[in-house]
C-alpha cells in the first residue's frame, strides 16, 4: 500500500511539473542603453513610441516604434496567437499602457521608424494631438489594420566585383 501511495504522489508531482507555468505579464522597463528593437534592431532611445509584448513562454519583445511592433506581428502571424500581454508607452507620460486601454493617433509625427503612430491613455488628449497634427484617432484593431509595413529596399553592394569588371 505504501508503494502505491508513493507512486501516486510521484505521478502527481510529475503531472504538476508538466502543467503550463505561470507567466509574468507585467510590462518590463526598457533600458535605452541596452535594449534594441526586436524588429529593426535599432536602439530604443525615444520611449514616447515604444511597444512591448510578452509571449506565452514569458519572453519579452521590445520595439522602438509601435509600427515596428505591428509590422513584426503581421510578418509573424503565429506570434499573435501566443501573446499574453501587449503594451505601448503613453506618448506624454512614457508609462506603459495595455493596448486595449490606449487611444492611438496616426498622423504627422516624427517617430523612430516613421510610422507616425502614438498612443495615449486619455481619449481627450489623443483627440487634441490628432487635431494638432491632422491625424486620425484609432483603436488598436484599426491601427493594426491601417498600418502597412514599409518594404525593405535592397542596397546594391558597390564593393562586389561583377563578372568581367576590372578593379
UniProtKB/TrEMBL annotation:
Full protein name: NosL family protein
Compositional bias ranges of the Basic and acidic residues kind: 154-167
Domain of life: Bacteria
Organism: Desulforamulus ruminis (strain ATCC 23193 / DSM 2154 / NCIMB 8452 / DL)
PANTHER family linked to this entry: HTH-TYPE TRANSCRIPTIONAL REPRESSOR YCNK
Region (Disordered) residue spans: 144-167
SUPFAM superfamilies named in the record: NosL/MerB-like
A matching Pfam family: NosL
